[in-house]
Amino acid sequence: MSPLPLPVRVAAGLVASAVEQARDLPRIVVELPVTAVSQALQASMRVQQKVTELAIKGDQALGALRPVEERPAWATFDDEDDVVSGNGARAVTELRPHRTPEPPADTAVETAAATTAAAAEGRSAERAEPVQADAAGPNVLPGYQELTIPQLRGRLRHLTLDDLRTLLEWETTHDNRAPYVTMLSNRITTVSEG
């Protein structure tokens, strides 16, 4: 038997393909909304990526023309010495140590007992005493427990390595707040290295 002409074979192939796609039509119709939404989301994400890339390139181009301020005017912190008052005049704030109230009699007895125990163990009495404190914080930084992270950051610069270790010990035995422990640990590392 001789083969059929090419156009007849192509037409038969088209009919067979149409029948196969007609059978798959219910599945394709169900998947069509999901596919359309997925393609739309992909296109949206590509557009967002392009916009972000353009913004980064724009920042780089503008950064070369205009240097970034080392300290923007809006960046003021609690630990700075110069503060602008409400009337626009500059005022100098002073860091004053908080006055520690006299401990109650039972705390004084505990402090004396800790000092005696430290002396018996061969440690200095000075090392045992600073850890003792009222509920607001250790003696090296009264009111420590009420300080916010920015306030604490400003006061840490003025403390010695032993004071920092005392604060860290007090924090870990009392509240053990992760940001405070991290800040104190980092400051201890900085002071001991430099």
UniProtKB/TrEMBL annotation:
InterPro entries named in the record: LipDrop-assoc
Superkingdom to which the source organism belongs: Bacteria
Protein name: Lipid droplet-associated protein
Organism encoding this protein: Pseudonocardia zijingensis
Lineage: Bacteria, Bacillati, Actinomycetota, Actinomycetes, Pseudonocardiales
